[in-house]
Amino acid sequence: MLKGKTALVTGSTSGIGLGIAKALAQQGADILLNGFGDAEAPKAEIAALGVRVEYHGADMSKPSDIEDMMKFGASKFGRIDVLVNNAGIQHVAMIEDFPVERWDAVIAINLSSAFHTTRLAIPAMREANWGRVINIASAHGLVASAQKSAYVAAKHGIVGLTKAVALETATTGVTCNAICPGWVLTPLVQKQIDDRSAREGISVAQAQKDLLGEKQPSLQFTTVEQLGGLAVFLCTPAADQVRGVAWQVDGGWTAQ
Ligand code: NAD
């Protein structure tokens, strides 16, 4: 279905980004990976699916790195057809204790990076009259939790950015949508579970159960495969008129 198309997934060396990159590659898309850490293993996993794969290590907090990555993508693949803005970090603290440097980093990586990749990807998408921008927001793009002011602000911001870009491209074959996952068991969430277990002196299993019980009525984690499936759907013709949505995959979190 996506043969001949190229997808850039930011923050795709682990977790949700890697899961979505795999799902798009399974549909035949060539992949540009990005993110920190070991890139060789994810590259090999994607290559095994029979598509072309490249990696760029842009730090998504740095606009000049992002510009470099977009130029690299164009030189290797011609253009980016599917842009998945996924890179993200978390920091948990009360607002009066929130380190200014952490606020800036969360906003830069979780929100401003999507502004930069999108502004640089849209011209070629417009020219081709086809493109998909998929922003990985969060349940926290729709509702808040205490001690996550920067994350909640960035995720609400990316839902707004999604709607604005969807309107600007509404008469074209380019769509822009957001996916809002609930808890997904990735390194980002495992850290929160481990911190909770240490803070409350409870087992990791109990901390995991409490985390789900607090927010996610299904009491089950959303999986990266489920998110990959939705990203693939958003690339199909059936989704041509899905524009500017913030689509929850959260086990009922935001239905409460
Ligand atoms: P993760 O920590 O497993 O992966 C994050 C990815 O982003 C990694 O590849 C990491 O290297 C990359 N990254 C971090 N900082 C970067 C930077 N400065 N430059 C480039 N890459 C950078 O996390 P995840 O849980 O897979 O999160 C992915 C996205 O999904 C994030 O935007 C997160 O907010 C969102 N999300 C996660 C959950 C969840 O429960 N895990 C829920 C809702 C939304």
UniProtKB/TrEMBL annotation:
Source superkingdom: Bacteria
Ketoreductase domain location: 5-173
Record InterPro entries: 3-OHbutyrate_DH, KR_dom, NAD(P)-bd_dom_sf, Sc_DH/Rdtase_CS, SDR, SDR_fam
Family to which the UniProt record says this protein belongs: Belongs to the short-chain dehydrogenases/reductases (SDR) family.
Database matches in NCBIfam families: PHB_DH, PRK12429.1
Name of the protein described by the UniProt record: 3-hydroxybutyrate dehydrogenase
Species annotation: Variovorax defluvii
Gene: bdhA
